[in-house]
Amino acid sequence: MVKATNLGFPYVGAxxxxxxxxxxxWSGKIxxxxxxxxxxxxxxxxxxxxxxxxxxxxxxxxxxxxxRVLDTAQQFGVIPQRYQxxxxxxxxxxxxxxxxxxxxxxxxxxxxxxxEMKKWFDxxxxxxxxxxxxxxxxxxxxxxxxxxxxxxxxxxxxxxPVLVGPVSFLYLGKPAxxxxxxxxxxxxxxxxxxxxxxxxxxxxAGADWVQIDEPALxxxxxxxxxxxxxxxxxxxxxxxxxxxxxxxxxxxxxxxNAEALLPHVDGIHLxxxxxxxxxxxxxxxxxxxxxxxxxxxxxRNIWINNLAKSIELVEKAVQALGQDRVFVAPSCSLAxxxxxxxxxxxxxxxxxxxxxxxxxSVEKCGEIATIAKAVxxxxxAVQTELQANAAAIESRRTSPQTxxxxxxxxxxxxxxxxxxxxxxxxxxREAQVKKLNLPLFPTTTIGSFPQTKEIRVARQKHNKGELSxxxxxAFIKEQMKYMVQQQEELDLDVLVHGEPERNDMVEHFGHxxxxxxxxxxxxxxSYGSRCVKPPxxxxxxxxxxxxxxxxxxxxxSLTKRPMKGMLTGPVTMMKWSFVRDDIPADxxxxxxxxxxxxxxxxxxxxxxxxxxxDEPAIREGLPIRRADWDAYLEWSVxxxxxxxxxxxxxxxxxxxxxxxxxxxxxxxxxxxxxxVITIENSKSDEKLLNIFETKQYTNEIGPGxxxxxxxxxxxxxxxxxxxxxxxxYIPTHLLWANPDCGLKSRQWPETKAALANMVEVAKxxxxxx
Length: 769
Known about the structure:
Elements: E1 3-4, H1 17-26, H2 32-52, E2 58-60, H3 68-75, H4 88-97, E3 99-101, E4 110-112, E5 117-119, E6 126-128, E7 131-132, H5 144-153, E8 159-164, H6 166-172, E9 174-175, H7 188-205, E10 209-213, H8 223-238, E11 244-248, E12 267-271, H9 278-282, E13 291-297, H10 307-321, E14 326-330, H11 345-350, H12 352-356, H13 361-377, H14 383-398, H15 405-412, H16 425-436, H17 453-463, H18 469-490, E15 495-496, H19 507-510, E16 513-517, E17 524-527, E18 530-532, E19 536-543, H20 549-557, E20 563-568, H21 570-575, H22 585-605, E21 610-614, H23 629-644, E22 652-657, H24 666-671, E23 676-679, H25 687-694, E24 700-703, H26 716-726, H27 748-768
Parallel strand pairs: 1-14, 2-8, 7-9, 8-10, 10-11, 11-12, 12-13, 13-14, 15-20, 20-21, 21-22, 22-23, 23-24
Antiparallel strand pairs: 3-4, 5-6, 16-19, 17-18
Binding site for Zn(2+) 1: 656, 680, 741
Binding site for 5-methyltetrahydropteroyltri-L-glutamate: 19, 124, 530-531, 576
Binding site for L-methionine: 446-448, 499, 614
């Protein structure tokens, strides 16, 4: 029989129970024992719901309290020296988010920063980058996969353990700070014995299949990396651990990367949503009973599956391989999808047509089971499901909700001059220096200030109708006034209004645009316990009305210092939404770019001298394969320029990007032609700065002075050293001082302390000139 399988499940819980549990532990409200009891309960519920939906291979071992790659690092002993003195759980969280704790009578002071965080391929999920020594030793300690498999077994649920693969783990890692650069894959012979031991332990526990995730297979790989895959799986096969190995690749096409490892595994998973053409290429390579896991249900989006098309694809595989050699699966782990549409009562009531197009993780498990049943027993066995699905697919294709002819006409008629600023940067800078009159090393923030409990409660009351529009507006103005006062007291140079009215940098604007809708429970993890609830783009996009003008005008009226308008860029508005998949991405991005252009022009007319259009997703959206880069960069950079090019020379355009490798697309970043760019730098060991010197970047830049994702407050001396390092690469007249990212997730005491230190550092270096 064709098996219904799953690669992973949204570990945060049905309604973010894990987030609340972990944050209660961090705040000292619950004990470690309480935390364990709570997460075991969540795991149990997840396994049971998948079982009830008909999934036969239920994943275990992929559940994490912070990040799976961080789990892997700790369980194989890849623990930097600065964390080794800490107890296991404190150590784990400190590696992920840093730890700053004063000394007590019984415990010493702790002050350690977090490890580097990067985007997980082209998703908006962030992983913790392993730090590897060139003489690294590996030891297997408390493997999560074994623990979770046994926990499921105790419930009479037989699961398929999931591991991060050895090659991807090393390939995604980096040499530890202070270590001379070396090939991290050279450590593979030392790591493999620990994987062999882990597979043996899983076999002893009762596992028959083990899923080993090797997403690095979708990269453009050099011959030595391909050979590393072959070496790794040949070694695992030779060890005869007794378990069957399914290697899973996702988020793109593997092309020839898997050919060398295929003879040494029992099955391979393909993302047939992203790369359906790979089915024909891989089938002839599967011999000796090897299994194909067909990823035909989109694990990264929220739209219903076209069951008829998926069944045809799986039937094609079955005709070539036979039923026993085909698994039906999502394209990738469902951790990138929300939990269940059962909680979306508002959309169901207000827009039942849109609701009929939605499918979250629980529903996707049902789709997988339906496809497997249809192929195994015939389509008549699921006729009712197929008829309902076909009706919903046709409804979405033909619905007037999805098409606005005026919007499409405007995109088609954009004049050539609208795609770039009228003057070159040197001309613009001269006008901006004259207008703004900023000191050397201007200080600013990225936009948001702490979203306090008071702000969240007021927003909830307003949304429920318990707080009138007038009272809510007055409350927001008081918050903005406080935030502006704090910035003036800190002596920042370019201020922001603090964004107290915004729940999310994408969702807030989505409410003010046609073509968007919003979920009640569409939560997905961004990093650690941080969850985001992306809006849904289901139709053509245009601006409903001016979106930020009243707030920013009020904030500017409170100060004589320049105020910075804050918008989210077109690529990020698209990439950080659950995006429609029924029109080309470049057309949708241009629609959003034009809506933002209208807002940028209105901000300038309102007297706002600086306008920041954030594009943190532009690198994240880069196609995995280099052959696809040029087309993407042309339209994504073009849409940013479309949104920002309607203003005069003296209006300063800022943009912000974070936690990405920019070196390989530096020319495209420069082509965005922002007057000021702010980037993450505090976790990146200066590697992002080298390229700005090498390429002689001429626009202004603010590399982040400290990490806002940690509650830790870096000292003045620490920031001085980091700023001095920046001056090695960035010309004095181009350098700004700012945090890594927005301050929304922080508390006020740590925010003011860190910013005060930052301003002191900028003033110190001004005095040296």
